[in-house]
Model the fold of this input.
Amino acid sequence: MSSGKWEILAVDGADVRLRSGQIGSMSVDVLAPVSSGLLDITAGEITLTLHLALDQLKTGNFLLQSAARSFISQYQAHTLVYTGNGPAGETWLVSGAAQAGTIEVDLGLTITPIASATSPMGEIEIVGSASMGTVHLPIPGLGTIDDFRFDVDAKLEVRASAS
Done:
């Protein structure tokens, strides 16, 4: 892939899926909408900046969504900002920090360009996982989780940036 800047589009359906492992008898599975993002590719380095609107997250369960939003308010984590970078090579691996309010988590992501009929890079797929350590989830029956891990998965539309 050649050098350039690619804007990550914040269109309807531009969501990043955050999914926990099994916690007791359930897992936490939320979709957080992308509010903005940029993929900057140079000859030697890739930088990914991604902003997620956590205050607009969605789940398939009303009680879980309410608990997740309570968690976000408790930690003043309304927007998640991720900045990661890595070498530009065959495989695009970036590492950096995801920060939302008072929470900061180290996160490594694999980025895969997906070609479309009109662009050599119409979409990107991002996958990764992280551990937040001990967290308290305001969900009846769960309470404190000693090692809260989650996976990141998204396919996001991109376009060449004019800047």
Notes: The chain has one domain: 4-160.
